[in-house]
């Protein structure tokens, strides 16, 4: 849990004010199910308490489910279920031992998958709140069932807006299905700033599938540093341009169209607009983008006496053997081309000569090891 919030901080994502665990809200879930039971929306089977979706005429409208087509085209294990779309609210603990069980009015068991969200949302956000988020895989089942529970319990559909982020892909496959993962720590190890990844996600609409490549991340890193360079050109910002402000808000409010908002920003920074106004506009956009544009795009050398940065001139370059400078350049080329095996081998050769090489978002830093 701590690692997750460390990563969120690195990505400039604000931590929630309330962090709740389903296992700490079992009573709330039981109470929610009892209301559904009292209103006649449940029935009992051999393995649990189920929600009767036939009681709702518009069940599945969020996903535009064709219930008749679902019945005809999908083979599932019905057991004692009355309808193919009915779902468990409480499951009984039968013969299979479980680590987590709780006593309930229906016997020893555990909550179904969907009830926890409705119960905790009701407790902390009320019967109806503004925005409910989730992945695209939540539309047809999980969110359809949350809405059904809420309609039955408190006569609302929970949220005013339902926003579903589409899957991140690697090599055009969903990360979870590809057998590969993408960790923020891996990006950092390869010399990329976390906010470069944030910029990359802003280049795709949240309802489109972003295909991750190291080349696209490198391009995002360069674009971010260019924006920071524009931002730092003027020390004293001017006034925000009203036309830019209005158009920026129009694009953001058009279903959170961040790619179009970024396109507007690039049109603006490349225009003949005064630099002070450009900075003021960037400062305004930064409130939504969260890219830390005021951070310098250059990384200064520290106190090590023998250091060379690939993107900066250095008076100490002559102190570093030419053969090591060449190895560093070859390794950087290998890294950018994705030849990680060669890059690792070259790193070993550099370190064997008493130097370290640190990957940066737009190059590298070579320095003598500390004694």
From TrEMBL:
GO terms for molecular function: ligase activity. Keywords: Aminoacyl-tRNA synthetase, ATP-binding, Ligase, Metal-binding, Nucleotide-binding, Zinc. SUPFAM superfamilies: Anticodon-binding domain of a subclass of class I aminoacyl-tRNA synthetases, Nucleotidylyl transferase. Coiled coil: none annotated. Residues 4-220 form the tRNA synthetases class I catalytic domain. Monomer. Belongs to the class-I aminoacyl-tRNA synthetase family. This is Cysteine--tRNA ligase. It comes from Aliikangiella maris.
């Amino acid at each position: 849990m701590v690692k997750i919030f460390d990563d969120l901080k690195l990505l400039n994502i604000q931590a929630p004010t309330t962090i709740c665990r389903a296992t700490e809200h079992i009573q709330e879930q039981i109470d929610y199910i009892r209301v559904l039971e009292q209103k006649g929306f449940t029935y009992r089977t051999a393995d649990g308490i189920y929600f009767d979706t036939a009681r709702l005429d518009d069940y599945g409208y969020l996903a535009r489910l064709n219930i008749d087509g679902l019945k005809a085209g999908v083979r599932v294990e019905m057991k004692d279920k009355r309808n193919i779309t009915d779902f468990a609210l409480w499951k009984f603990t039968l013969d299979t031992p479980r680590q987590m069980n709780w006593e309930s009015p229906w016997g020893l068991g555990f909550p179904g998958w969907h009830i926890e969200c409705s119960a905790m949302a009701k407790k902390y956000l009320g019967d109806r709140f503004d925005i409910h988020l989730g992945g695209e895989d939540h539309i047809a089942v999980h969110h359809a069932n949350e809405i059904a529970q809420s309609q039955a319990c408190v006569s609302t559909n929970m949220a005013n807006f339902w926003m579903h982020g589409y899957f991140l892909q690697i090599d055009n496959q969903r990360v979870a299905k590809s057998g590969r993962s993408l960790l923020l720590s891996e990006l950092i190890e390869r010399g990329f700033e976390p906010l470069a990844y944030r910029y990359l996600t802003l280049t795709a609409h949240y309802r489109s599938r972003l295909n991750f490549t190291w080349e696209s991340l490198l391009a995002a890193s360069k674009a971010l540093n260019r924006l920071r360079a524009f931002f730092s050109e003027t020390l004293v910002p001017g006034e925000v341009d009203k036309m830019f402000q209005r158009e920026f808000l129009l694009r953001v409010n058009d279903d959170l169209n961040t790619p179009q908002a970024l396109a507007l920003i690039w049109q603006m920074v490349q225009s003949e607009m005064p630099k002070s106004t450009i900075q003021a506009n960037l400062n305004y956009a930064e409130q939504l983008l969260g890219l830390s544009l005021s951070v310098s795009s250059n990384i200064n050398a520290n106190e090590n006496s023998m250091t060379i940065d690939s993107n900066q001139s250095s008076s100490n370059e002559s102190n570093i053997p030419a053969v090591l400078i060449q190895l560093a350049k070859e390794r950087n080329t290998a890294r950018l081309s994705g030849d990680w095996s060669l890059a690792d081998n070259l790193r070993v050769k550099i370190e064997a000569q008493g130097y370290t090489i640190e990957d940066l978002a737009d190059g590298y830093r070579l320095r003598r090891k500390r004694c």
